[in-house]
Design a protein that fits this description.
Two copies of one chain form a homodimer.
Chain A: E1 3-4, E2 31-32, E3 52-55, E4 63-77, E5 82-88, E6 93-97, E7 100-104, H1 108-120, E8 128-133, H2 138-143, E9 151-156, H3 159-168, H4 170-173, E10 181-185, H5 189-195, E11 199-205, H6 219-228, E12 229-238, H7 246-259, E13 264-270, E14 278-285, H8 305-310, H9 318-323, H10 329-339
Parallel strand pairs in A: 1-10, 8-9, 8-11, 9-10, 11-12
Antiparallel strand pairs in A: 2-3, 3-4, 4-5, 5-6, 6-7, 12-14, 13-14
GO molecular function, one term (chains A, B): spermidine synthase activity
GO cellular component, one term (chains A, B): cytosol
Family (chains A, B): Belongs to the spermidine/spermine synthase family.
Chain lengths: ~350, ~350
């Protein structure tokens, strides 16, 4: 089992204040009404399809994706957010933070495999990995597939996310069973100090609920990341949707281009339960051995006991790795201009 | 302007009967409630987010995508279906047939450009094109970008779709202004007889509302298509979602592999307002000059007057063409097995 360290002091806020109410929806995002509920005055509850969960947010105004709810399995409030798990009719169990879908059992493979293997397959023999966020454990499960990896640190601010995942998503939280994993509950800045110039890969499985998470997409933050990486080390972070957030993506690419002296690339993939059905990834490397993210250099050894136990990859393969960097014309024009 | 022929006799049904009611949703698919509406007993109307349009169908049970409605611009009933146009808050104007979103101004570029340029860029100097469905005119607009094309026939069964597109979607229906275009209102089987062994490209922009459209995905239908194509001619049809309809896709690929003696390939792209956020395409070629769909052989001459007037492509480019054929592991496994 993974070790669990004492909490790291949280001297810097990770979550930013919610945006103001907009679009007629509760600013907490999301809306839930059980079949017997008639109370539309409760915060976060609005008039939606009875018995369905609807994801409404000022981050994607004017549209909402809804899933039919079979049963609510957990509702709690941590120091940081509202945490909910429900059994959906057709997407398996669903984890929701502050009204925003984080994962469903049916499509979590796409996000977890891509945010992990896009960067890890782009460098030879990765050894030290730092995961920020991703408390559900799915990224850990995928990192563990790379047999060269010796050390996996994960820094998650909200212990409730870890606990809930272990209870309701055992096939995701299985990532914690890897003896290479150490869980740190707390703020990520301390982790960067520990990892200075040592880390091969830093993956950010940022909470989608934190919206544009401005401070995590700005230069001082990326500078901390760059400092923590070894020469030629890489970072991969969730980076919004090309259909919804081109203005944010433009800023992220621009900031990364100034901070990271190696490669700076944007990739994307399909995730049905994320707004607009896609999610992007920002991949950067530091000065040092050059990294061509578009051409995977290491493959996953499927014959290891670890990979046999976890079963085959559901989503990632080398072809879809390369394809993920091909952008539609409207996105390519903007991103290429900023990435140079 | 395009010519418009007399109606072709419709001796065969194009639309199949609706599937039975399922999942608590009206079997007509879709649900609409205006802000002042309180009538939830009308067929096709259910309790959804007030002032929003929700797309509910037994074809994608347990999930629904909703768009905020600013104003309903048109509601009509043709001999074949219910036709609606509304102004959405964030996706521009939206065309809905029998409760299912056909296109929005914001993302129509992805579907129209990919279903057209994937096949047309895969063969040298296409001359004769037959479009089945796609009465909105968007595919015509894209076909016209290829300057080698001399003749474009479109066969649309529902004249109301054409009229509504010309009235509310001028930037889509602009495709009809091409003098190479001839519009045939009626059933497509007559078109196959007219086109026997002559057509370079046959594109099916099938109505998504017709669900799996069983008879259009079965062998006799594909045999008619194959007969209409010249040796080395190609067909591209809408082919559902890898996330939702792998069992249907498996059958389509299997049928196509038996009928088409050339290449048989599956591609996909992102369309935010289609269920699960993706749509697939089936691309096949007949016996004759070999076609490698994954490698575009002809490019669009952007210097022609036609292309200057239409403006640049928004979505398609040669890289995303090749990337569209890269499938996630779960889909590749099934499709590759059937395509061989």
């Amino acid at each position: 089992m993974a070790q669990e360290t004492a909490s790291v002091p949280t001297d810097l806020p990770v979550k930013r204040p919610r945006e103001e109410e907009q679009n007629g929806a509760s600013a907490t995002g999301g809306a839930m009404e059980t079949e017997n509920s008639t109370d539309n005055g409760t915060p976060g509850i609005s008039s939606v399809i009875p018995g369905w969960f609807s994801e409404i947010s000022p981050m994607w105004p004017g549209e909402a994706h809804s899933l039919k709810v079979e049963k609510i399995l957990f509702q709690g409030k941590s120091d940081y957010q509202n945490v909910m798990v429900f059994q959906s009719a057709t997407y398996g169990k669903v984890l929701v933070l502050d009204g925003v879908i984080q994962l469903t059992e049916r499509d979590e493979c796409a996000y977890q495999e891509m945010i992990t293997h896009l960067p890890l397959s782009s460098i030879p023999n990765p050894k030290k990995v730092l995961v920020i966020g991703g408390g559900d454990g799915g990224v850990l499960r995928e990192v563990g597939r790379h047999s060269s990896v010796e050390q996996i640190d994960i820094c998650e601010i909200d212990k409730m996310v870890v606990d809930v995942s272990k209870q309701f998503f055992p096939e995701v939280a299985i990532g914690y069973q890897d003896p290479r994993v150490t869980l740190h509950i707390g703020d990520e800045y301390q982790m960067f100090k520990l990892g200075k110039n040592k880390i091969d890969l830093n993956t950010f499985s940022l909470l989608r609920s934190s919206g544009p998470a401005q401070e995590l997409f700005e230069k001082p933050f990326f500078q901390s990341v760059a400092n923590a990486l070894r020469p030629g080390g890489v970072v991969c972070t969730q980076a919004e949707s090309i259909w919804l957030h081109m203005h944010i993506i433009e800023d992220i690419v621009s900031n990364c281009r100034q901070i990271f002296k190696g490669s700076v690339n944007y990739a994307w993939t399909t995730v049905p339960t994320y707004p607009s059905g896609v999610i992007g990834f920002m991949l950067c490397s530091t000065e040092g051995p050059s990294v061509d993210f578009k051409k995977p250099v290491s493959s996953i050894d499927t014959s290891t006991d670890y990979n046999k136990a976890r079963g085959p990859l559901k989503f990632y393969n080398p072809e879809i790795h390369t394809a993920a960097f091909c952008l539609p014309a409207f996105a390519k024009k903007v991103i290429d201009a900023k990435a140079k």
